[in-house]
Structure formats: C-alpha cells, structure tokens
Task: structure prediction
Amino acid sequence: MTQTNGQSSPAPNGLAGTAWNAIELSGMAVPAQSAADRAPHLVFAADGKLSGADGCNRLVGSYSVKGEAITFGQMAGTQMACPQTDEVTRRFRAALKGTAHWRVTADRLEFYGATGKPLAVFDRRPAAASRR
Result:
C-alpha cells in the first residue's frame, strides 16, 4: 500500500475512490482550460473502472493496480475536434499507454514509464469536480 505523508492511501489499491487533475505531461506543464470537464483528469472507481478526459475528449475504461504497478485497459472516448489541445491530448494518452508504475506523494499522483522516466504528474481533484 502506498503511503501518503505517513498515512495509508484511502483504498486497498491506493487509487480507488480518488480523482486527479493532470498538471504535467512528459515534462510539459498542462495549460489551464476553460472547460473543467475537458481538462485532463482521471477518476478511479473502486470497481476498477476509470473515467476522465484527455484535454479534449471524455474517456472511460478500466485500470488494474498490483502494488506499485498499474495497467490501463482499453479506453473508449468521445471524438471531439479540439485543435488547440492536440499536444496535451497526445501526451496524456501516451502517458496512460506508457505507465508502468505509480506513486502518491502528499497530494500528488505520479506516473512513470518502465525506464523510470516521469510521464505524468497529477494534483488531487476537489471532491465536487470528481463527480464529472
């Protein structure tokens, strides 16, 4: 189980029941967006389901956690046209595809590739925004 400031994470798999806003993707700061529901974020349900957005499109799928390892299942999403968010969308999806392990430190979720390279950094999402 992942430790957060000396306290255990809120669920057995460490991510269940949590929600996160992406703040950095492959070293690039995520720009602020006016539409909060499209801003890159992830919501982890206790049943292994995942929802969120990639910076443009809404996403749903699944995830599996085993210790510090995480894998993402097939993702389905809307197909909106958001030309100004292409780079954010590409980096977000690449981070999900390339993530091998994760960790939570304080109120930050970090995804890493198999080489240990950081792929994404997230801040905890406020409770009201987690229901999106």
Notes: Residues 3-131 form a domain with the Lipocalin fold (CATH 2.40.128.270).
